Amino acid sequence: MADHEELRRLLQDALGVESVTDLTRLSGGASRETWRFVADGNSRVVQRQRAGDERDMMIEAATVDAASRAGVPVPELLRAESSPSGSFMILDAIDGETIARKILRDADFVDARAALPTQLGRALAAIHAMSSDAVDGLPEADPIAFYTDVLDSLGQPYPMLELVRRWLLEHRPTTGATTIVHGDFRLGNLIVGPNGLRAVIDWELAHVGDPMEDLGWLCVKAWRFGQSPPVAGIGEYEELFAAYAEASGITVDADVVRWWEVLGTWKWAVMCILQASAHLSGAVRSHELAAIGRRVCENEHDLFLALEGRW
User: Fold this and answer.
1) Which of 112, 121, 177, 190 has the fewest C-beta atoms lying within 10 Å of its C-beta?
2) Residue 179 to residues 64, 212, 215, 249, Cα–Cα distance (Å)
3) Is there a single domain that holds both residue 48 and residue 186?
4) Where is the domain boundary, 233, 250, 267?
5) Domain carrying residue 77
6) What is the pLDDT of residue 307?
7) What residues form DSSP beta bridges with 179?
């Protein structure tokens, strides 16, 4: 209860409101905690950075604000502050669903599933229309080099991932435009209503890079959540590419997106190893992290299929 009162006072002071009620903890990632609340009758969301997360939350907040000004569907940023006791940002609350299983299967989202491939293509085009220097401090790194370092740091051999790394280096496409990239654009990080996309959320992995990375990540097999269609489990490549091209004026090279799709699967495999390692080392004891480690073999299987052209 004391934590609730402390948070309530913080939110009242930050927003300059008289009342904060209905504080409700929402599920969230490992790097922040998320609460929904009502401030003077208006629904809001606050995200607070957890100890140990070294990323600058103010960069994420600035990215959300820039995306809003660029016409990307995002929650309105109301306040962001950084302090020794923890950074936070307050956003307008958007009603809708984020759980992929429900979006992909529930009858309430039949119309949404039909509309989403086009809507996602347009949203990505709006994100990538943002200048790479629109937000100060966004990281820029070679994803192969970065995740190779991560894999090497774990000190265990993974022959399949080494094979795929070699394939990625040998088939690397020429980098085209450099833009702001969301970095984790997929179901789970999108708020969806009965008519489709309402907001793009969770910008903590935003960075500067090749915009085709976002298209490839959206099509990674893991993010189809057991469904067959390649685009988020709901649509075909052609729908996504056509909508993106119409909105951006840029023709999508399917082979380039496929390369990023393979890279995304390889990257997710490394991330699964890393998360399982946190559990196995005793740094963070978690059934969830242990279970994620079991998915490494799924990604290795998917990578075999991808390299054989049977994805």
Assistant:
1) 177
2) 15, 10, 13, 15
3) no
4) 250
5) 2-92
6) 87
7) 209
What is the rounded radius of gyration, in angstroms, for the C-alpha atoms of the chain?
A: 20
Q: Are residues 206 and 218 in the same domain?
A: yes
Do 225 and 159 share a structural domain?
A: no
What does each C-alpha distance from 101 to 97, 98, 189 come to in angstroms? 10, 9, 13
Instruction: Give the pair of three-digit tokens for residue 121.
Output: 């293509």
Q: What is the pLDDT of residues 24-77, one digit of tens each?
A: 998 755 567 899 999 999 999 999 987 666 789 999 999 999 999 999 999 999
List b or e across 122-154, with b for residues whose CB sees 16 or more CB atoms inside 10 angstroms. Answer: bbbbbbbbbebebbeebeeeebeeebbeebeee
List the chain residues with pLDDT less than 50. Answer: 1-2
62, 199: one domain: no
According to DSSP, residue 128 is labeled H
Express each pLDDT in 229-264 by its tens digit: 999 999 999 999 999 999 999 999 999 999 999 999
How far is the C-alpha of 103 from the C-alpha of 113, rounded, in Å?
7
Overall pTM > 0.85: yes
